[in-house]
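protien #1 (seq + structre)
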Amino acid sequence: MSTIGLAIIVLFFLTALLAPFLAPYDPMKQDLQLIGAGISKEHWLGCDQVGRDMLSRILWGTPLTLKIALGSALIGLVIGTVIGAAGGYYGGKVDAGVSFLTDVLFSFPGLLLAIAIVAAVGVGLTAVIIAAGASSIPQFLRITRSAVVGEKERDYVLAARAVGESNFSIILRYIFPNCIPTVVVLLTVRIAAIILIASGLSFLGLGVQPPTPEWGAMLAEGRGYLQKAPHVAMFPGLAIMIVVLAFNLLGDGLRDMLDPRMKI
């Protein structure tokens, strides 16, 4: 199943890169004669509530979704791993402060934390990236801290300390490389969660604003036409579901491959 997930993700990346060339129509162009039109030879996924080609809008939404996913994941990865590694390695008051911060962040559901951040920062693409990234910090923080705690007392770390290597060098050269498999698995799964959070924000009107072809915003626009033109909401929802499922399948496969305990 992880192979299927990987194939879908590769297709997702290629579509994001080639969207301007693959889209058959201008995603913003309206044709009032095609309002709510169904699937046809000219419009493979039909048209939306104002006559825009659904396939073109979904294709143009792919690079936007990718930008949000990668930007937010990078924020959570960098901040979470740095703070988590510091807490796990130094211990004591530093670790206590990191653990307290983690507990505070985990007390908020991911979407609720993202909504609070958007309320403070404002709506728009940048706000969505920051909010979705911030909601991923506690996961990276906790996983990295636990991994570092398990590595810092190993013989090779003690030997590095004995020869006088700096703490920064020990973390960067010896500890963190052994934590990479765990972080990579989490990163894959968190990208799926980030896509859901970003789509949820746009669905609630707090993320990317219409008429920008963002999947969550398209889903929100189509919810009022579920009876007359269900395809307007169905296809953006399917796009979200397929991509999220693909990242989860890949994450499960990477966990089985990289975690020695899963091989026993």
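ok now protien #2
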Amino acid sequence: MPTDPVTADVEQGIQRLVAVILGKRPQLEGIVRPFAALFSEKARVAGALKDDLNATHCDVSGTRLAEGIPVLAGISFGFLTPALERAFAALVPAVKAWFPAIVPELDGIEIARRHASLDLSQLAEEYVQGSLKGLHEAPALSAVGRQGLGFVVQLVLSAVLQSLAPSFAEQVREVHWDRGYCPVCGSLPSISYLSKTEAASSEFLVGGGGQRYLHCALCGHDWRVRRQLCAACECEDNDQHLYFQVPAVAGERVDVCRHCGHYLPCIDLRETDIAFHLDTAAVGMAHLDMLAQEKGFNPMVRAPWNTFE
């Protein structure tokens, strides 16, 4: 697939961030490089799909958003089928190249797809709705193969939605969205960040700090929330919130909520000038995932790089 200038900038940003991460934590090379390469390919796919996606199938209703209903909630994904097929064809070979240990499972998924026993749009709808029935009951796949299918569906859908989500960004920003789940697709965040300090006063600022943004684990949309909000349970009791970080490492921490037992990695841009790609940054903070889990907390979104069983 051709690479547009925006995608090229993303790829360069990923490469720079990988160098920074491995300069500090070379022991993470085995997970950072494969996922960074996969994220670069996903960015290329998302860029190539822009002209194939018609956002008019989705009604961006200010009323629905005001009621806490994400843009894609209840929408049939049939119109995404051609884009999902293209993304599947492009990304599965990339996964095989960087994750050879799961090639047999991926071969089985490709065979099932060729035999039309996997409906990508239906699986994508179920994934967004939080119903994994289609994944659990996927025909002709072993239990391990069904786990691999979940990874593939998330990856393929993520590429498509990352291409589609910018179409709604302006309308979504006009709505006061102060919830922990994404206003575009309804997914939880995989990472958060604090912006550089801004001069203007805002209800989203506390104690002179930067504004807090959540980054959607699926569609990649970023949205602003109050600093004290837990995205998982939406508890705002400061007494229930704390954070962990590694001494002498500025700008990286993991925020935890004792109310619900979940945690979320966070980058504080007031303490670092590093340009970053948020998904890659999340992988590069796997050491903080391990620290939080050792203390008994659970990730807000489970991912291959933060699952240590």
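The mean pLDDT is 87.
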